[in-house]
Design a protein that fits this description.
With 478 residues, this protein is an alpha/beta fold. It contains 16 helices and seven strands. Strands 1, 2, 3, 4, 5, 6 and 7 form a seven-stranded mixed sheet that branches. The chain is globular and about 90 Å long.
C-alpha cells in the first residue's frame, strides 16, 4: 500500500520533523544554563511537554490515517480480486481452458489470502511498523556511534542523511529494475525456436504440451506481455495497451522462418504485474530501514541463455548485459555499486523451482544452516508468477539476500525459501498461520533488520553512506 505509506511519511516529515528539530535546538539551549538556574528548569519542562504532546498527536494522526487508508485500499483490492476470479472462472467454463482455470484458482487464492490477513494488515501492521522503526532507529544510532566514535563529522553526516534524529528514518536508495524483452526484428526468434534453443510458444505465454497448466501439479506460470507493431487500430510498441500477439500470428512467423515481416516484442512481464512487485518491495523495505525508489527500464536481450534463464548464467548476465563490475577486476568499484541495487525481471528460469536469484558480493556467515555463498558481482533477478499474493514478495526477498539475509523457516517470514525439498528451510512451522494472521502477511524480523544494517555499515563505502538523501514525496501520490 504505497499510497498509505507515502501519506503517513509525509505527515511525519512535514509536521513532526520541524517540531523534533526545534526540540533538539531547545535541548542544546537548555544545557547552557547551570542546573540550579530556574530558567533551565522551565526550559526542560517546556521541551519535554512539547515532546509528549507532539508524540501523542502525531502518533494518533499517523495511526488513524494509516488504518483508514489501509482499510479502503485493502477492501477495494479484495473486491477487485473477487471480480477477477468470477470473470476468469466464467471464461474457463465457457472455453474449457485448463490454463484459464488455473489462473482463476490462483485468483481465488489471492482472495482467500487477502481475507485471512485483512485484520492484521489494516489494524496491527501500522502499529507494528512504528514499533519496529523505533527499535531499528535506536539500533542504527548506537552502531554508528560505536563504529565511528573517532569520526564525529561522519556521525553527523550519517545522522542527517539517514534521518536518525528526526523525520522519516531510512536509507534512501535508487534501485534500477530492468524488464527484459526480445524483438523479432533484432534477432530471428523463429530460427532459435526451430533449432531447439528456445520454445517460442512458451516464451510468449502460449501453453503447450511442455507447460500444460496441470491443476494438481507444480504451478509455474510466468506471464509475459506481447506487443505487435504495426496494428490496424493504430497501436503499437510503447502504447499503454499494445495489441497482443496471437498464436496464429506466431505460428505463421515460425513456419516462415521469420521471413513474413511480422514485427513483435515479448516482454518478461506486464507493467502492472511488475508494479505489484516493486510496490511490495517498497512497502516491506521500510521494515529493514530501506526507502527504495524503483526506476523501471526495458532492456532487450538477444542471447537464448537469457531468454530461458539458464543455471549458472547469472554472473555473465550481470556483467555483460547489466554492466555490473567484477570484484576480481575492480574490488572498490564493485563495492561502490552496492548502494545502487540492480534487479532484472527475466522471462523464466530453466530451474522451475526458482522464482529468483541473487548474487551477493560477501555471502553470509551468521546463518546456522542456510548461509549464502559469496560472488564476484552483485545483483538480483526474478520472474512474475502466480498467485500474486504470494509471489509479489519475490523481488524484496531477493533484495533481502542482496543485503546479506539468508533463508529462514516459516512462511510468516519474507525470507522463507519455499523449496519443497526443505534444503533451504521449512515452509511450514507450527506458528506460521497465527503469526501471518496477526501481522497481516509475511514480514522481516527485528533480527533481520539489524543484520541488514550490519551488512550496510560493514560493506558500504563511505561515499555511499554519506550520499545525498531525498525527502518523502507529497501525500496521496500513487
Amino acid at each position: 500500500m504505497p499510497a498509505c505509506t507515502t501519506t503517513t511519511e509525509w505527515i511525519r516529515e512535514e509536521i513532526s520533523k520541524p517540531i523534533e528539530e526545534w526540540e533538539q535546538r531547545q535541548e542544546k539551549k537548555c544545557k547552557d544554563y547551570p542546573w540550579y538556574d530556574p530558567r533551565g528548569w522551565f526550559c526542560w519542562f517546556v521541551t519535554y511537554f512539547v515532546k509528549v504532546i507532539r508524540w501523542v498527536v502525531i502518533s494518533v494522526v499517523r495511526a488513524v490515517v494509516s488504518v483508514v487508508c489501509r482499510f479502503i485500499v485493502a477492501l477495494l483490492g479484495l473486491i477487485l480480486d473477487a471480480l477477477k476470479f468470477l470473470g476468469l472462472l466464467l471464461k474457463a467454463l465457457f472455453t474449457w481452458d485448463k490454463c484459464v482455470l488455473q489462473e482463476a484458482l490462483a485468483m481465488l487464492g489471492n482472495v482467500a489470502t487477502r481475507l485471512f490477513v485483512f485484520l492484521g494488515e489494516v489494524v496491527w501492521m501500522p502499529f507494528g511498523d512504528v514499533v519496529r522503526e523505533s527499535q531499528l532507529r535506536r539500533y542504527v544510532k548506537e552502531q554508528i556511534e560505536q563504529r565511528f566514535a573517532d569520526r564525529p563529522d561522519l556521525i553527523a553526516s550519517l545522522n542527517s542523511n539517514l534521518h536518525i534524529e528526526s523525520g522519516v528514518f531510512g536509507y534512501r536508495l535508487d534501485c534500477k529494475v530492468f524488464r527484459l524483452y526480445v524483438d523479432s526484428q533484432t534477432v530471428n526468434l523463429a530460427e532459435l525456436h526451430r533449432a531447439g534453443e528456445i520454445n517460442l510458444f512458451v516464451l510468449a505465454g502460449f501453453h503447450d504440451g511442455t507447460d500444460n497448466c496441470d491443476i494438481f501439479g507444480d504451478w509455474y506460470r510466468p506471464r509475459p506481455q506481447t506487443a505487435v507493431f504495426p496494428s490496424d487500430s493504430g497501436g503499437g510498441l510503447g502504447v499503454p495497451e499494445p495489441p497482443t500477439l496471437t498464436r496464429d500470428q506466431l505460428e505463421e512467423y515460425i513456419n516462415s522462418a521469420g521471413a513474413n515481416g511480422l514485427h513483435f516484442r515479448i516482454y518478461a512481464m506486464t507493467t502492472g504485474n511488475l508494479e505489484k512487485r516493486t510496490d511490495s518491495a517498497s512497502e516491506k523495505g521500510r521494515q529493514i530501514g530501506l526507502i527504495l525508489n524503483f526506476d523501471v527500464v526495458d532492456h532487450e536481450v538477444t542471447d537464448p541463455a537469457y531468454m530461458f534463464y539458464s543455471v549458472g548464467v547469472q554472473p555473465r548476465f550481470l556483467k555483460e548485459e547489466m554492466g555490473r563490475i567484477d570484484e576480481d577486476a575492480d574490488a572498490e568499484g564493485a563495492r561502490q555499486q552496492l548502494c545502487s541495487p540492480l534487479a532484472a525481471g527475466v522471462f523464466r528460469f530453466s530451474d522451475e523451482s526458482s522464482r529468483g536469484q541473487t548474487s551477493n558480493l560477501f555471502g553470509t556467515t551468521v546463518c546456522a544452516n542456510y548461509n549464502l555463498p559469496d560472488d564476484d558481482v552483485s545483483g538480483v533477478t526474478f520472474i512474475d508468477d502466480i498467485p500474486d499474493e504470494i509471489r509479489r514478495y519475490v523481488l524484496i526477498h531477493e533484495l533481502g539476500h542482496y543485503f546479506g539475509l539468508c533463508h529462514v523457516d516459516g512462511f510468516q517470514h519474507i525470507m522463507v525459501s519455499g523449496k519443497k525439498d526443505g534444503s533451504q528451510g521449512e515452509l511450514f512451522t507450527w506458528d506460521s498461520i497465527p503469526l501471518v494472521f496477526f501481522h497481516g502477511g509475511p514480514w522481516f524480523t527485528r533480527g533481520e533488520s539489524e543484520q541488514v544494517w550490519d551488512f550496510i555499515l560493514d560493506h558500504f563505502t563511505e561515499a555511499c553512506l554519506v550520499g545525498a538523501a531525498r525527502p518523502p514525496e507529497g501525500p496521496f501520490l500513487l
